[in-house]
Amino acid sequence: MNVSRNILLTGYFSRMFWYSVIIVIFPVIVLGCFSYYKSSGIALQKVNEGSAQNTLQTELRMEQYLKAVDAASMQLVTSPLVNNSLDSELTYKDFQLIRDLREYMQRIQSYELGIQDIQLINTGKRWLLDNSGMYRFEDYESNLDLTKYVRKEKNSFWLASFPADSGLSTRGSRPALQLIRQLPLNAQIPTMFVVVKIGPGEINKYVQNADELGGKYVLDEYGTVLIDPSGEWTGKNFPNAGMLPADMSGDRPSEPVLTDFLGQRVSANFVKSTYNGWTYMTLVPVVKVTGESRAIFWITLFICLGIMALAFAGVYMYSKRLYRPVRKLYETVKGAALSAQDLKKQDEFQYIGERIQNLKMTQHELEDQLQGQMGQLKDYFVLKLVQGEVKAADVAENIRRFAFPHQWKTKAVLVAQLDSLEHTRFREADTDLILFAVSNIVSELVPAANRLSPILIHPSQVTLLGSETEDREEFKNQLYQLAEKIQTAVRSTLGLPISLGVSRAYSEWGDMPAAYQEGLEALKYRMKTGAETIIFIEDRQPAQRVKPYYPEVVAGGLLDAIKLLDMDRAYTLLGQFIQEVFSKESSRQEYQMSLARLLMELIDLAQQMGAALDQAAGRSRSLFERLLDMNSAAEIERWFREDIIGAIAAAVEQSRASQDTSISEQVLRMIHEQDDHELTLEACAARLHFHPSHVKRVFRRDVGVSFSEYVAGHRLLTAKKWLVQSEMKVNEIAERLQYNNAQNFIRYFRKMEGMTPGQYRELHKEWS
């Protein structure tokens, strides 16, 4: 759990993880929000469509009823009885006409129409007639507001009548809806009004206030509320008249409008009637619509949360998997385990980039240093080459590595020596400086394509020259011309005479040691030729005498392997030595000289190790006599293996055995005396001046366990002793015993003892 928390703190992992989370979760959140709002919008749209249709149906039902009442009233105003009464001053004497009018009026007031009352108001003849009877106009004139009944543009219209302005009523002041008709028709000044009154309950029957379809409102042409769901605003001006569209077309639902009404957000649908100018309105609270989509919201939310949880887990696992190689690389570059604080502060790639930059800078510095030392390395290689200390297999590789010419067909060695410093400004102490100057002159005069690096081998300056020509005479002429240039340049620059010895021409790199010796040999003829001469060895020694071949590198490796008792390698190198000696075309005497030289070196090694080779080989004949009598390479190799190398190895083993006991004892003493210091096998071997592998092998053989196991066991015993006999804390014990930290010490102690150090201390306190 701590590892996961630490990983989340890392700069790169944190960015990769949270960026992936955002990429995965953001579309889910957007999709969830879009789904919810889209479903809410669709639900609101469906409700609006239903509400618009319901509003239109309400208008149609209401107008169908109003038009039926209008048609009935039309029958009344067009009847002869009403027309005859226009100019009649009705009195009690006109009883029959009054009765006929009332009967006709009552006949119109059918149950289906729900007409509450019909009034005939004759302002010209000053009388009133309704269902209750006939009255004098003067008795009710003060209660009538006839200005509302007069409209020049219309002969008939609907008028809302509420208690405050109910007009003439003999049945109390109940709210009513009035249809007003003016007579005579098309008159400038009407003299009679036919008033058809309808109770509020009749029109409410045609309005369905279903909750799911919103509240229904009916407003007259003046904005007075005729019908509202609560009845609170009936007879009053509509409280939010500004929400009404100004461009409503007749008998068609307008576009739904989202607005605020009485403190809540509503969706409003409107229909404007062309019949009477009334406005039919349905208000649907948005909260009801969204409340219906609440289930969709919760389902969408849970689905999104589930997807987000799965995405979170998947992103974490995948990011952790992707981060693992980055962390390993970071820890490798860092070079130590990372703490949470390090992880939190540093960005891995930034740190890796900085380390790589540092490595590149270090590399450039090393390259600069190496470039500065390349000249010395080249000189060293040439020195080892002319001394025969480079393996034949390594020559070509080093030639390419140092960018020396490698296509030469012929090669030779030019050796220059000072003839004399007498009568010059130089002294013997200046010899090295003079040779160095000669070497610089050679470097300038001889093209790099025809030479290797000039070197100094006191008291000589040596240059290895070559050419791509195979003509030995042509190559000799080139060498002579170069030698003359060098002599002339040294004479003119330093004022000193020098002589140059030139070897024979060779084709193999392995012949360079012999060529160097020939150059030195040629200079010995100065006593005959005099100073400041150029001497070719082949001119002084026409018959070439080849020095017996002796593979010094292989012989040296053979002696080292015997000293280290690495017998497998020693026998392998012995076979390689015999094979290389006999692979050269030489005389029997030359073969014997090479083998005798190896025997002399082995005898010298045996004397150093205290081995008696004469006893091993038999005293009757000397070792050299036996070697000279052998006739085959296999016999010679077997004799060297069994009688010579075997005897030396036995002596070395016996000498080492006596040393090994001392080695183990000294290592044990170091462990016991320095248990509170960092102690390694390499450190012990360095103090004893032995190879760590040898000390490791001897210690395991004598003690029975490895060095590390013994050190760990000894420190465990020391820790147990300190836990029982001292009051040191566990952290102090771990630190003194050179554990990396207390946790490593506690884990090792528990593994070996089955309990923690604290439990071990408490247990022994109870026993004591």
UniProtKB/TrEMBL annotation:
<dbReference type="GO" id="GO:0043565">
    <property type="term" value="F:sequence-specific DNA binding"/>
</dbReference>
<keyword id="KW-1133">Transmembrane helix</keyword>
<protein>
    <submittedName>
        <fullName>AraC family transcriptional regulator</fullName>
    </submittedName>
</protein>
<keyword id="KW-0805">Transcription regulation</keyword>
<feature type="transmembrane region" description="Helical">
    <location>
        <begin position="16"/>
        <end position="37"/>
    </location>
</feature>
<feature type="domain" description="HTH araC/xylS-type">
    <location>
        <begin position="665"/>
        <end position="763"/>
    </location>
</feature>
<dbReference type="Pfam" id="PF17853">
    <property type="entry name" value="GGDEF_2"/>
</dbReference>
<dbReference type="GO" id="GO:0003700">
    <property type="term" value="F:DNA-binding transcription factor activity"/>
</dbReference>
<dbReference type="InterPro" id="IPR018062">
    <property type="entry name" value="HTH_AraC-typ_CS"/>
</dbReference>
<dbReference type="InterPro" id="IPR041522">
    <property type="entry name" value="CdaR_GGDEF"/>
</dbReference>
<keyword id="KW-0804">Transcription</keyword>
<keyword id="KW-0812">Transmembrane</keyword>
<keyword id="KW-0472">Membrane</keyword>
<dbReference type="InterPro" id="IPR009057">
    <property type="entry name" value="Homeodomain-like_sf"/>
</dbReference>
<keyword id="KW-0238">DNA-binding</keyword>
<feature type="transmembrane region" description="Helical">
    <location>
        <begin position="295"/>
        <end position="318"/>
    </location>
</feature>
<dbReference type="Pfam" id="PF12833">
    <property type="entry name" value="HTH_18"/>
</dbReference>
<dbReference type="InterPro" id="IPR018060">
    <property type="entry name" value="HTH_AraC"/>
</dbReference>
